[in-house]
Protein backbone atom coordinates (compact mmCIF):
# COMPACT_ATOMS: atom_id res chain seq x y z
CA UNK A 1 0.00 0.00 0.00
CA UNK A 2 2.76 2.47 0.90
CA UNK A 3 4.39 1.98 -2.51
CA UNK A 4 1.19 3.03 -4.27
CA UNK A 5 1.04 6.37 -2.41
CA UNK A 6 4.64 7.17 -3.24
CA UNK A 7 3.84 7.05 -6.97
CA UNK A 8 1.11 9.66 -6.77
CA UNK A 9 3.41 12.55 -5.79
CA UNK A 10 5.91 11.50 -8.45
CA UNK A 11 3.15 11.51 -11.07
CA UNK A 12 1.98 14.94 -9.96
CA UNK A 13 5.52 16.33 -10.12
CA UNK A 14 6.03 14.84 -13.58
CA UNK A 15 2.78 16.32 -14.91
CA UNK A 16 3.54 19.76 -13.46
CA UNK A 17 7.04 19.69 -14.97
CA UNK A 18 5.61 18.73 -18.37
CA UNK A 19 3.23 21.71 -18.32
CA UNK A 20 5.69 24.27 -16.97
CA UNK A 21 5.85 27.35 -19.19
CA UNK A 22 8.60 27.37 -21.80
CA UNK A 23 11.17 30.13 -21.66
CA UNK A 24 11.61 32.61 -24.46
CA UNK A 25 15.04 32.66 -26.01
CA UNK A 26 16.57 35.93 -27.11
CA UNK A 27 18.59 35.45 -30.28
CA UNK A 28 19.54 39.09 -30.79
CA UNK A 29 18.35 42.59 -29.99
CA UNK A 30 17.31 45.27 -32.48
CA UNK A 31 20.77 46.88 -32.67
CA UNK A 32 22.45 43.52 -33.30
CA UNK A 33 19.94 42.68 -36.04
CA UNK A 34 20.46 46.07 -37.70
CA UNK A 35 24.23 45.60 -37.68
CA UNK A 36 23.91 42.07 -39.08
CA UNK A 37 21.44 42.99 -41.82
CA UNK A 38 22.95 46.33 -42.85
CA UNK A 39 26.63 46.42 -41.80
CA UNK A 40 28.04 49.93 -41.47
CA UNK A 41 24.69 51.64 -42.12
CA UNK A 42 22.92 54.23 -40.03
CA UNK A 43 19.21 54.05 -39.29
CA UNK A 44 16.56 56.77 -39.24
CA UNK A 45 13.52 55.87 -37.17
CA UNK A 46 10.31 56.12 -39.20
CA UNK A 47 7.71 54.70 -36.81
CA UNK A 48 4.15 54.92 -38.11
CA UNK A 49 0.78 54.50 -36.44
CA UNK A 50 -1.64 53.16 -39.02
CA UNK A 51 -4.89 55.06 -39.41
CA UNK A 52 -8.08 53.14 -40.18
CA UNK A 53 -7.79 53.44 -43.96
CA UNK A 54 -4.14 52.27 -43.93
CA UNK A 55 -5.05 49.43 -41.57
CA UNK A 56 -7.88 48.30 -43.86
CA UNK A 57 -5.76 48.67 -47.00
CA UNK A 58 -3.00 46.41 -45.64
CA UNK A 59 -5.49 43.76 -44.52
CA UNK A 60 -7.17 43.81 -47.93
CA UNK A 61 -3.88 43.78 -49.83
CA UNK A 62 -2.07 41.07 -47.84
CA UNK A 63 -5.15 39.12 -46.76
CA UNK A 64 -3.66 38.67 -43.27
CA UNK A 65 -4.38 39.89 -39.74
CA UNK A 66 -2.73 42.95 -38.22
CA UNK A 67 -1.91 42.66 -34.52
CA UNK A 68 -0.73 46.22 -33.98
CA UNK A 69 -1.27 49.56 -35.68
CA UNK A 70 2.26 50.55 -34.65
CA UNK A 71 4.83 49.95 -37.38
CA UNK A 72 8.44 49.97 -36.16
CA UNK A 73 10.52 50.78 -39.20
CA UNK A 74 13.85 52.43 -39.90
CA UNK A 75 15.04 53.89 -43.20
CA UNK A 76 18.58 52.68 -43.86
CA UNK A 77 21.34 55.04 -45.00
CA UNK A 78 22.58 52.54 -47.59
CA UNK A 79 19.08 52.15 -49.03
CA UNK A 80 16.17 50.02 -47.95
CA UNK A 81 14.26 49.43 -44.77
CA UNK A 82 14.68 47.59 -41.48
CA UNK A 83 11.35 46.59 -39.90
CA UNK A 84 10.63 44.69 -36.70
CA UNK A 85 7.37 42.92 -36.04
CA UNK A 86 5.69 40.29 -33.91
CA UNK A 87 3.44 37.40 -34.79
CA UNK A 88 1.53 35.05 -32.56
CA UNK A 89 3.01 31.58 -32.22
CA UNK A 90 1.21 28.66 -30.59
CA UNK A 91 1.95 29.77 -27.03
CA UNK A 92 3.65 33.15 -27.23
CA UNK A 93 4.75 36.01 -29.46
CA UNK A 94 7.60 35.72 -31.95
CA UNK A 95 9.65 38.87 -32.50
CA UNK A 96 11.54 39.14 -35.77
CA UNK A 97 13.19 41.60 -38.14
CA UNK A 98 12.97 41.91 -41.91
CA UNK A 99 15.37 43.81 -44.14
CA UNK A 100 14.02 45.13 -47.42
CA UNK A 101 16.46 46.40 -50.01
CA UNK A 102 16.00 49.59 -52.01
CA UNK A 103 14.66 47.33 -54.78
CA UNK A 104 11.76 46.26 -52.52
CA UNK A 105 13.04 42.69 -52.15
CA UNK A 106 13.36 40.86 -48.83
CA UNK A 107 17.07 40.58 -48.12
CA UNK A 108 17.00 38.85 -44.75
CA UNK A 109 14.69 37.65 -41.97
CA UNK A 110 16.05 37.22 -38.45
CA UNK A 111 14.37 35.95 -35.29
CA UNK A 112 14.87 38.27 -32.33
CA UNK A 113 12.98 36.35 -29.65
CA UNK A 114 10.75 33.28 -29.49
CA UNK A 115 10.04 30.24 -27.38
CA UNK A 116 12.68 27.58 -27.68
CA UNK A 117 10.16 25.03 -28.94
CA UNK A 118 9.63 27.17 -32.07
CA UNK A 119 13.13 26.20 -33.28
CA UNK A 120 12.12 25.39 -36.84
CA UNK A 121 11.67 29.06 -37.69
CA UNK A 122 15.11 29.86 -36.34
CA UNK A 123 16.80 27.64 -38.94
CA UNK A 124 18.52 29.94 -41.48
CA UNK A 125 17.61 27.74 -44.46
CA UNK A 126 13.91 27.99 -43.64
CA UNK A 127 14.02 31.79 -43.31
CA UNK A 128 16.02 32.03 -46.55
CA UNK A 129 12.87 31.00 -48.44
CA UNK A 130 11.68 34.61 -48.00
CA UNK A 131 14.76 36.17 -49.62
CA UNK A 132 13.94 37.81 -52.92
CA UNK A 133 10.21 38.02 -52.17
CA UNK A 134 8.55 41.35 -52.89
CA UNK A 135 5.13 42.88 -52.59
CA UNK A 136 2.80 40.83 -54.76
CA UNK A 137 5.01 37.71 -54.76
CA UNK A 138 3.45 34.31 -54.43
CA UNK A 139 4.22 32.66 -51.12
CA UNK A 140 3.00 29.22 -52.23
CA UNK A 141 6.58 27.96 -52.35
CA UNK A 142 7.29 28.65 -48.67
CA UNK A 143 7.39 25.29 -46.90
CA UNK A 144 5.65 24.93 -43.56
CA UNK A 145 7.52 23.26 -40.72
CA UNK A 146 6.06 20.01 -39.40
CA UNK A 147 5.51 20.43 -35.67
CA UNK A 148 5.67 24.22 -36.00
CA UNK A 149 3.00 24.85 -38.62
CA UNK A 150 1.32 27.62 -36.64
CA UNK A 151 4.51 29.60 -36.02
CA UNK A 152 5.83 29.08 -39.57
CA UNK A 153 2.44 30.06 -41.01
CA UNK A 154 2.33 33.16 -38.84
CA UNK A 155 5.83 34.13 -39.96
CA UNK A 156 4.71 33.78 -43.58
CA UNK A 157 1.71 36.03 -42.88
CA UNK A 158 3.93 38.50 -41.06
CA UNK A 159 6.38 38.86 -43.94
CA UNK A 160 3.47 39.32 -46.36
CA UNK A 161 2.06 42.01 -44.06
CA UNK A 162 5.44 43.76 -43.86
CA UNK A 163 5.78 43.78 -47.64
CA UNK A 164 2.27 45.26 -47.98
CA UNK A 165 3.08 47.85 -45.33
CA UNK A 166 6.27 48.73 -47.18
CA UNK A 167 4.51 49.04 -50.55
CA UNK A 168 1.41 50.91 -49.33
CA UNK A 169 2.82 53.06 -46.52
CA UNK A 170 6.60 53.17 -46.06
CA UNK A 171 7.84 53.32 -49.65
CA UNK A 172 6.76 56.95 -49.96
CA UNK A 173 7.68 58.05 -46.42
CA UNK A 174 10.26 60.83 -46.62
As a percent range, the share of strand residues is 15-25%
Distance between the termini: 77 Å
In helices, the fraction of residues equals: 25-40%
Low-confidence stretches: 3-18
Number of helices: 5
Please tell me what the overall shape is: globular
Quickly count the domains.
1
Oligomer: single chain
Averaged pLDDT, please? 86
Structural class of the helices, strands and pairings?
alpha+beta
Rounded radius of gyration (Å):
20 Å
Element order, helices and strands? HEHEEHEEEEHH
The biggest beta sheet is recorded as:
7 strands, antiparallel
Number of strands: 7
SSE inventory with pairings:
Elements: H1 2-18, E1 24-26, H2 30-37, E2 43-45, E3 48-49, H3 52-62, E4 70-76, E5 81-88, E6 93-100, E7 106-115, H4 124-127, H5 149-170
Antiparallel strand pairs: 1-7, 2-4, 3-4, 4-5, 5-6, 6-7
Helix pairs in contact: 3-5
